[in-house]
Fold Tyrosine protein phosphatase.
Amino acid sequence: MPHIIVTPLSRLAETATRSGARDMVTLINMGTPVERPAEIAEARHLFLGFNDIVEPADGMTPPGAEHVQSLIAFGRNWDRRTPLLVHCYAGISRSTAGAYITALALNPELDEIWLAQALRRNAPSATPNSRLVALGDDILGRNGRMVDAIKAIGRGEEAFEGTPFILPLVV
């Protein structure tokens, strides 16, 4: 069964190897060095460079609609034969939001609340970037349901980084 795996940068290589992933999304600050695992071909790697912020700030790049549109397009082109690997620096904010958005884009029948609760169960430290979630909600026409579902699970446990986890695509 296809699924999404979320990981922090520090565990990227081992997670790619263990999972058998062949497609990867990087959501990280521009200029942060990311060594693409050997298992991931360059053509199957989407790099989206922006800061983990929810409001514009001097010298920083906030997540934008173009980032979310690229994420959704990449996800829809994923063949689902192997897991999709999604990562950011800590595996807590940008990557969890990216995985949540991608799962809902790929399976419009998924319930936003059910998926947010699965996210919380599988990743106690997850605190999805609210700006990304709001952009995804708007682009996918979810009428605030994604935003409300993520608000309902609240902030995750304090952590320096998350641990790799699976986000399902089906109930």
Remarks:
- The first strand starts at residue 3 and ends at 8.
